[in-house]
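Quick one: co-fold with magnesium ion.
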Amino acid sequence: MEHRIGQGWDLHRRVADRPLILGGVTIPFEQGLDGHSDADVLTHAIIDALLGAIADGDIGTHFPDTDPAWHGASSLDLLSRALARVRAAGWRVVNLDATVIAERPKLAPHRDGMRAALARALGIDAAAVSVKAKTAAGLGAEGRGDAISAQAVVLLARG
Ligand code: MG
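Sure, here it is.
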C-alpha cells in the first residue's frame, strides 16, 4: 500500500453583500467572503491539499480566476473535479483534517453539516472528515475580522 499526504491553505477577505459558504454550507452571518467562485475558503484549501498530494498543481492551475467558466462556481463542484483527478491517478482519499480560522461567526453549530457535505463530495464516511474551528485571539487579518482562512491535510492511499 502506497500513501501520499497533501496540504492546503487559503485566505479570503470578508466583505458585505456576499453569502458566507464554508465546506459547502451557507452559514448565516452579516458578511461573506470575496472571490471569483463562491469563495468557499475551506473547500479551496481542501482542493489544494488533494492536488498537492498527487503533485498536480493547485486550484489556480485547474480553475483559474481569469476563466469566466469558474465565475460564481460552486466550490464543491470544483472539489469533485479535483477528486476526479485524484481517482484518475489511482488514489483514494483515506481521511481529511481541516481547520478554519475565523474570529466570527461561531462555527461549532455548523461543524457536522460541513463534515457531512464534504464527506459526500469526497465519497468517504463523515467519520474520516474532521473540521475544526479556531479564533485568532484578535490578531492578524483573521483576528481583526478582515479575513477568514483555512488549512487542510489529506491522506491518500492506493494499492
Ligand atoms: Mg480561494
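If it helps, The chain is about 30% helix and 30% strand.
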